[in-house]
Amino acid sequence: MSEENVNGAAATPEATGPAFTVEKIYVKDVSFEVPGAPAVFNEQMQPQLQMNLNQSVQRLNDNAYEVVLGITLTCNAGDKSMYLVEVKQAGVFGLAGFDAQTLDVMLGTHCPNVLYPYARQLVSDLIQAGGFPPFFLQPINFDALYAEGLRQRSQQGQLADAETAGNA
């Protein structure tokens, strides 16, 4: 219920406050590779996992944004690659009535929190369908990741300001 009838007139998002909607959730891209199959299934070494996480945001119109959460999981045993999973879980989100800072926070924390369970399940299903034991990604604190990203951007800005001041 994003619009209400107030004295015969439709309420605007500004009048009712900020609005957040999930318009669509979908898999944008997926890849699963087992380069050493079937020999890799006989490996007795302890596997080592490496996960990379990334996010991109694209503005679609005034109040709609596509957020893409990318997860790459690489599993190696010694110098042999056991499997590689790449998932890009995406969503279209409606965000209206937010100030710029709150909008940035919503896109950087709330939207990935919505997408992550879908990506997590897809990664798990792919690994199991590939013939490996079930694997479940641990929960991720997107609030902490966002705060760390802000801290790093602030430090980079301070370094750039210091370099500019030093060259003046």
Descriptive report:
It comes from Lysobacter niastensis. Keywords: Chaperone, Cytoplasm, Protein transport, Translocation, Transport. It is found in: Cytoplasm. Pfam families: SecB. Belongs to the SecB family. With 168 residues, the protein is an alpha+beta fold. The chain has a domain at 26-132: Roll (Bacterial Protein-export protein SecB), CATH 3.10.420. The chain is built from three helices and six strands, in the order E-E-H-E-E-E-E-H-H. It has helices at residues 13-16, 100-129, 142-167, and strands at 5-6, 9-10, 19-33, 48-61, 64-77, 80-96. Strand 5 and strand 6 (80-96) form a beta hairpin. Helix 2 crosses helix 3. It is flat. Mean pLDDT is 88; it is low at 1-9.
List keywords for this structure.
SecB-like_sf, two-stranded antiparallel ribbon, 168 residues, 6 strands, alpha+beta, flat, Protein-export protein SecB, cytoplasm, SecB, Bacterial Protein-export protein SecB, disordered N terminus, 36% helix, four-stranded antiparallel β-sheet, 3 helices, protein transport
